[in-house]
Amino acid sequence: MSALTITDPVLHDFAEDVGVEGPVSIAGGRTRWSVGGAVDDSARLLAAPSGIVAYAASEMTVQVRAGTTTAELAEELTRHGQRTALPERGGTVGGAVAVGENPVDLMARGRLRDAVLQVRYVSAEGELVTGGGPVVKNVTGYNLPKLMTGSLGTLGLLVEFVLRTNPVPAASLWLAAEGSDPLAAFDAIYRPAGVLWDGATTWVHLEGHGPDLEHEAAVLHDLSGFVEVEGAPALPPHRWSIPASEASTVPAGAGASVMAIGSGLAWGEHPQPGRPIEPGVAALSARVKHNFDPSGRLNPGRTVGH
Amino acid sequence: MSMRGQPTVTRRGHEATDGPTLEPMGIFDRLSRRGATVEPLVADLREALSDERVRVDGAQRALMAKDASVFGGGVAGPTCFPVSTAEVQAIMRVATRHDSAVVPRGAGTGLAGGAIPLGAPIVVSTGKMNRILDVDEANRVAWVEPGVINLDLSKHLQSRGFHFAPDPSSQAVCTLGGNVANNSGGPHCLAYGVTDAHILAVEVVLPDGEVVMLGGLDPEPAGYDLRGAFVGGEGTLGIATRIAVRLTKNPPAVRTLLLSFGEVRDAAETVSAIIAAGIVPAALEVMDQRITVAVENFVGAGYPTDAAAVLLAEIEGLEAGVDIDAAAIERIGRANGATEVRRAGSDHERELLWKGRKTAFGAIAQLAPDYYLHDTVVPRAALADVLEEVYEIADRHDVVVMNVFHAGDGNLHPLLLFDAREEGTLERVHAAGAEILRASLAAGGVLSGEHGVGVEKQRFMDELFSDADLEHQNRLRRSFDPVCRANPGKVLPMGHSCADIQALRAVPAEVWG
User: Fold this and answer.
1) Is A70 on the interface with B (CB under 8 A)?
2) Complex confidence, ipTM
3) Using CB atoms, which residue from A190, A241, A291 is nearest to B478?
4) Cβ of A57 under 8 Å from any chain B Cβ?
5) Domain A9-168 adopts which CATH fold?
6) Per-residue b/e over B465-504, b at no fewer than 16 CB within 10 Å?
7) If DSSP codes are grouped into helix, strand and coil, which group holds residue B458?
8) In chain A, residues 72-131 whose CB comes closer than 8 Å to chain B
């Protein structure tokens, strides 16, 4: 029996519920339900299994079922001084991975796609499939976890993950300054946890050891008068993804917005317009979809990339 | 000798003529001697590139038939040296017209046989696509061609305060295209992640000749993460022609510690304890006594040769934090039985310590004519037990084993030393290797942490993955390459379409034998 043999009866029961035919989808917390468009009314809605299966802080991995809330997982990890690359704005682990939604402070926590070490899903044929592996480093075979992260459940219904965790740094500090150049602040700091800018105010999030943060806070104060603030600004409702090189200008059509300097995540008052996929990539994507879900029964109506 | 297309094991460093499948160069020797180009495939390739950049002579084909692995049995067709995406595309179209397979090749430093040509494919060398196209410091991204050497990029970035984080032991010669194909690691991947965490976008010539840009410079590019699927594809999904790599800021402060232990187990337990204490060093490397002695004789780095194991720990960051973490690591090490803790007192001393680690595989050349470097990953908690098993397995098969590994990642690299001229040695080495793999799997580990599957571990894939798992990997593969044109015979075990010898039908044996 290999490390990947699936013995969990909960997953087998779920695979049986998915069955072998008929349109089907998973509803989690509906926090990100509209991403990729509405699921056809014809689809049966299932609830993914939930619960933390295994967690060993010294391995820096946690095995968690898709229906677990991000809040429950965060609470358990925090108890052991750790966290993961999931966004913490509600909903389920499965929903966040299906969307491929990065945390606001991805420069500190890492990208979600890099944290998904192993994925388990139910295929269009109703079979349980494992991709990747349960350890922090692995290049055995093709990278199904990457393909599944952000796939909106259109290639397989996501049921369980092994995620990489990381220690929470010893200290954390938020600073802000009005009218400063966000790029200058970004460049002045070795590895900021986050730099946010709303067109007028720059917020810098520092994490690490206390004495280093004091030093960097002093550097930012001298640079353009940064002072300590309570935390992050409120973020507008619509998430945008823009090239990092464009994050120091307010995106056209976003309305009131906040940009993450360095990463290119942004939050706008209005949704981001559709981002066209070039024809060659669209054709390749269509082959992927066809090979994984020939009858189109998985999350019908949803399309990846908008 | 084995069936054509099936890899065989040969002794490292043998002259090409020792490989039984390489002797009859046949038509291409005659062609190159006469300078004629009557063979239609070669004529079309030369038409697409130039006469000089399509080589079919015996020496070239012998060179391309091997890589840095212990595997032989490769048979190369013509080698092409394209200089542009358009030329790679032209090669792929010629290959399609002639129904020939194509194998991309960087520096050939792979250890799993991923670059070994099976079925006499066209070999596409990226050697002449070695330009750094653009460095955008402000946005921490550089565009490079696939033939750029890993260390050359970091050297190029050094004065600007940046580097490319993945640093495989072969970084002085291996290429970024090869790093992308293998999703390469290296000692400093513990904190920074392996290659795919540092690749933003890849321009790829697909096996049907279509050119696509996968990924993008924004954090969540629209569509499936085909960039992520491509990285680590071992050349079976197409050929990367331009790569956008993420730049990592050079750390303001570095501390390098060398901890000595009386037991290998103590070193392994120290590693787990460091991680459990919430410290993620930039690197955590362990060397056992045998390799430490060999390295010390080779480079004189000042390693303690009387310790059962040494742990090389490196912390990067800001001045205060690196001292806090270094002190904690020293404390944890002593609590777990460290007999000596040394801090590198200067850049020179630090470089010397790393030189020892990075030249470990060169150092063993003084001990035995051949070596086989394994690569598996186990959970950190299982490191000490699996290491003990590795020593027992080697003893049982009468093979000398040394261990030098990325302990922080649980990434073992047992090094089996042998002399292939001794009757029956190779069989013992392979039997020991197979047992080491199985011990790693039994401990909850995987087959490879950074070398890949290539031809080396195909036959073990079904011991890790179920039939359904492998079928789904095959679906990914076929989405990129429905006709198994790119690097056939690799990764997936026999019985899955693109791995099957049936797929290597393209060129008649009598032409390329």
Assistant:
1) no
2) 0.97
3) A291
4) yes
5) 3.30.465
6) bbeebbbbbbbbbbbbbebbbbbbbbbbbeebbbbbeebb
7) helix
8) 81-82, 100-102, 106, 110-111, 113-114, 123, 127-131
CATH code, domain with B81? 3.30.43.10
Break chain A into its structural domains and give their ranges.
Answer: 9-168, 171-268
Q: Answer yes or no: do A110 and B450 touch at CB < 8 A.
A: no
pLDDT per residue, tens digit, chain A (306 aa), is 677 889 999 999 999 999 999 999 999 999 999 999 999 999 999 999 999 999 999 999 999 999 999 999 999 999 999 999 999 899 999 999 999 999 999 999 999 999 999 999 999 999 999 999 999 999 999 999 999 999 999 999 999 999 999 999 999 999 999 999 999 999 999 999 999 999 999 999 999 999 999 999 999 999 999 999 999 999 999 999 999 999 889 899 999 999 999 999 999 999 999 999 999 999 999 999 999 999 999 999 999 975
Residue of B nearest to A170 (CA): B278
Task: Say yes or no for a CB contact (<8 Å) between B378 and A135.
Answer: yes
**Residues B219, B263: one domain?**
no
Instruction: Record the tokens describing residue A162, joined without a space.
Output: 């092994």
Residue B61 structural domain: 8-125+504-512
Q: Do A144 and B473 touch (CB under 8 A)?
A: yes
Quick one: B116 and B16 in the same domain? yes
Count Cβ atoms within 10 A of the Cβ of residue B74 and give its class: 0-12 exposed, 13-18 middle, 19 or more buried.
buried
- Residue B270 and residue B205 share a domain: no
Residue contact A243–B223, C-beta within 8 A: no
Range list of β-strands (E), B29-181: 54-55, 71-72, 79-80, 102-105, 122-125, 132-136, 141-144, 162-163
A281 contact B CB<8A: yes
> Per the structure block, which two tokens stand in for A123?
């295929």
pLDDT value at residue B471:
97
CATH number of B390's domain: 3.30.70.2740
How close, in Å, is residue A56 to chain B by CA atoms?
9
